[in-house]
Design a protein that fits this description.
By secondary structure, the chain is an alpha+beta fold. It has helices spanning about 5-25, 25-40, 65-80, 105-115, 145-195, 200-210, 215-225, and strands at about 45-55, 55-65, 90-95, 115-125, 130-140. It contains seven helices and five strands. Helix 2 packs antiparallel against helix 5 (about 145-195), helix 5 packs across helix 6 (about 200-210) and helix 5 crosses helix 7 (about 215-225).
Length: about 230
């Protein structure tokens, strides 16, 4: 197959993936599609998964098989590995030959011996103050990731970034809606008790929050749950 034919085939495969992602029923299904595609689209990838680094340790969100979960468990156990580098200074970490890996020597030795992998690639998908998510890719012994593998991996990581950014935005919107509902319930109770309008009820909550040094939503939650008012107005 010529270079041009290979590029055309790759574009077609990514187009099919995009259509499949759009038709998937939920977030986990979309993430699973990308992970499975990593194994089929990246020549040297044998195992793929999404690793979340958040307290109390690494967790595997979805994976092509149990290899990523086992490798993450070893990172948690040993306290070293590519996904435990919380202060990452690069979007992509690659170890093409784990026999020569000096950054995580104990972990590298164990995954080679117990799982039989030789190369690992970890690509950041998202990061925030408390956690990050990464696309974790493994190649069996005898294989080493090259530049072509990296290019395709980065494209798939881009798909994951879009999916997971949308998921986090929905979660944030859901949290904001819940907060607005709780505050509205508290405002309704205050309006009834004091015969005031909604702006005055919100000012009441804001004053209590300032005087007690508590979050406004926490005060609203207490009022909505107990229907009891703070001591002073």
């Amino acid at each position: 197959m010529s270079v041009g034919d290979d590029a055309t085939k790759r574009v077609s495969e990514f187009a099919q993936l995009a259509h499949a992602i759009a038709a998937a029923p939920d977030e986990d299904a979309r993430l699973q599609l990308v992970v499975d595609s990593a194994v089929s689209l990246i020549r040297r990838v044998d195992h793929a998964g999404i690793t979340i680094n958040a307290k109390p340790g690494l967790a595997t969100r979805v994976s092509s098989d149990d290899v990523v979960s086992r490798a993450n468990e070893m990172q948690n156990e040993l306290g070293e590995g590519p996904c435990l580098d919380a202060l990452r200074d690069a979007d992509t970490l690659i170890s093409s030959d784990l026999t020569r890996e000096e950054r995580w020597p104990r972990w590298a030795a164990r995954v080679r011996h117990e799982i039989g992998v030789n190369s690992v690639m970890s690509l950041l998908v998202y990061t925030d103050r408390h956690s990050f998510g990464a696309l974790s890719l493994y190649a069996q012994q005898g294989k080493r990731f090259d530049q072509d593998d990296l290019v395709v991996s980065q494209s798939l990581a881009g798909h994951l970034a879009v999916i997971m950014a949308a998921e986090r935005e929905i979660e944030q919107l859901g949290s904001a809606l819940h907060t607005r509902i709780i505050i509205g319930q508290a405002e309704g109770i205050l309006m009834e008790r004091f015969d005031i309008n909604v702006d005055q009820a919100f000012d009441y909550l804001r004053r209590v929050s300032s005087h007690t040094n508590r979050k406004l939503v926490d005060i609203a939650t207490d009022i909505a749950r107990t229907r009891k008012l703070p001591d002073s107005r």
